[in-house]
Amino acid sequence: MAAYLLRRLLLVVPTLFGIILINFAVVQFAPGGPVEQLLAEIKGEGATLGRLTGEGSGEVRAPSSEAGGSTYRGARGLDPAIVRDIEKMFGFDKPPHERFITMMAGYLTFDFGRSLFRDRPVVDLILEKMPVSVSLGLWSTLLVYLISIPLGIGKAVRDGTRFDVWTSAAVLVGYAIPGFLFAILLVVLFAGGSFVQWFPLRGLASPGADLLPFWQRGLDYAWHMALPTLVLVSGGFAGLTMLTKNSFMDEIGKAYVVTARAKGAGETRVLYGHVFRNAMLLIIAGFPAAFIGILFTGALLVEIVFSLDGLGLLGFEAAIRRDYPVMFATLYIFTLLGLIMQIVGDIMYTVVDPRIDFSARR
Predict the structure, then answer these.
(1) Taking a C-beta distance cutoff of 8 angstroms, is the pair 4, 360 a contact?
(2) How many CB atoms lie within 10 A of CB 27?
């Protein structure tokens, strides 16, 4: 097992490098970069040039008819020196390969540089937004498992009954409703949209919550997390419920279950003493992947609707503004966590079923 883990850890480095390299190459051909956006702001809003050059003299140069053959469409009518100053400010005065090497060298020590538009270290931004996304992903994943596993077992045991039919209908409805529409509905109904305001709409804590006793802070936190977590759980438990049901039904029909019943074992002992461990192998081992999926893909629209300033919203805004340091830093962290969680999932396979030996694979 140790040799297998070592091989997987060594594969993380080239995989991560390849993903960053491909995305970096694609971005070089994407229009509307940070330089173009700032040039458009200058022409549209008349920004002062002292802020751009960093000289603070307030000197305004006479614009020329063209920007000296610049490749930026928004540079027309601006002094070429201004364009060069903007490129230098954003680091685009260097060729792409030099920028990529510098970026990857910093990533080895988790130095992601500074945000182009927020003028703050990217690490500080990520650490500031991380608690929101982790809270959403962790509690949503735990609730999905706590609901889906008992429900799936109940459906397997009562297969074909009214309970199975009605719960299947509820599961399909929850899966079919888009998360952002359900989030908007909850805001309209319960967060002051048009009816009542039973739940807050912004942040994870009320103003002054840090002055409250510990148990009151916990209640305030749960109050803020209730609606966003409900949205993520409603769309995430359907697949896991059906997977649990099908896994249990597949195991219940096997010979060892028939043998256990023939020996006089009770239904509870058969179900939880024999079937449970085999049926739960895929479900428990898939917990890391489910957490990553909810954390980094399902929470974006929820963060936007409920005004939760998390990593999903940070990455989305960075992509819109072409804030490349933030874009690639979030991509780097998401990819690294995803690769590590895959390894953790393999470890959980061996914990749930010691018969699995990944080191024997070729």
Answers:
(1) no
(2) 15
Neighbours of 305 (CB within 10 A): 21
Q: What is the pLDDT of residues 78-132, one digit of tens each?
A: 556 766 766 676 677 778 888 888 888 888 888 888 887 787 888 888 888 888 8
* Cα–Cα distance measured from residue 75 to residue 37, given in angstroms and rounded to the nearest whole number: 10
For residue 294, CA distances in Å to 72, 108, 179, 258, 332 come to 39, 27, 12, 38, 18
Any idea what DSSP says for residue 275?
A: I
Q: Which residues of 270-294 are buried (b: 16+ CB within 10 A; e: fewer)?
A: bbeebbeebbbbebbbbbbebbbbb
Residues 6+ apart with CB under 8 A from 253: none
Tokens matching residue 27:
């971005």
How is 306-323 classified by DSSP, letter by letter?
Answer: TT---HHHHHHHHHHHT-
Task: From 284, 258, 265, 256, select the one nearest 353 (Cα to Cα).
Answer: 284
Return the closest-CA partner of residue 33 out of 99, 77, 104, 81: 99
